[in-house]
What does this fold into?
Amino acid sequence: MHITNLVVHVTTRPPNPNPIRDALQALPQVGGVRVEVQTDAGIVGVGDAFFGRPVGAPEALGAFVEHVLKPIVVGEDVAFVRGLHQRMLAETEYHGSVGLAMFGIAAVDTALWDCLGKLHGVPCWQLWGGVNRQVRAYAMVGWLNYGDDEVQDICRKAVDQGFRAVKIKVGYPTLAEDIRRVEIVRSAVGDDIEIMVDANQSLTTAEAVRRGRAFESMGCLWWEEPIPAADVDGYAALAAALDIPIGAGENLYTPADFARFLRRDAVDIVQPDLRRAGGPTALLQIGALAEAFHRPYASHGGGPVQLNVMACLPNAIYLETGLIPEGSPLKLIDGYAQMPQGAGFGW
Ligand SMILES: [Mg+2]
It folds into this structure.
């Protein structure tokens, strides 16, 4: 099956004046890029890259995919999807394969795997070989811009939808405010629901140790990205000092970045992002790498691509998602997300 064309669709929307917010940034959710790979078999594969911010990024990425990545893949055989991934990395190396370029590589890689799954009429997890029929899911619902009542309402709603775990943002100016936030959420969801906390890179290592001890004593499930993402020394110190598992990885690029963290015992729960990792090809590598180090994998962000990857990983523990919107194909049973059954990355 050969690639005959690649079409780029850019969607932009005006920034939300009341964006969701974490300790690092506001996220007005400005749009995304959809890559459509057309083939001589009549099969069309789709890959997406979304942007929480900044304005202008979807247009810039659209031009990048059109002018840099499209010429690499058009005319090639989809069966060589991993080879095409390598070529995209090699061709973008001069100006840097990370950042925006990696968002594009991820979208194209997703579209190529989607083509292969559709060609064979099976979900991608069946191409790769499955392990899990379902995986636990948690709701990332506790944004910092929510007041006390709002955060309690949305966490209760998540429990009503069947989630057995919720994640909330922390990283307030003081530890006392962080503790108060966890207590407010605990009182809303009760003792049987897991709570994860995420400070989005906002603290110093010393402060992250101090707050981590508090979250540990409050029974939180994991302590996510407390310090700047690239600080492997800081993460190693943090993981050594605390018993609560340290989650990190959503802002790391490429499997090599994860290897650095794993070799240093700097991360307990590996959390790659589909876009920054570089697509399903890279997520599978990172998942296997984490397994070799006996570390669990929890997705950053949800959707059918992460679910397909997690169907194949023995170390997959949690899918991240938001509240499930009306009519969503995501199916939750006893807190577990069910694996998609559609061809490629279809539901
Ligand atoms: Mg996070």
Q: What stands out?
A: The chain has a mean pLDDT of 97. Residues 159 and 285 are 33 Å apart (CA to CA). The chain has twelve helices and 15 strands.
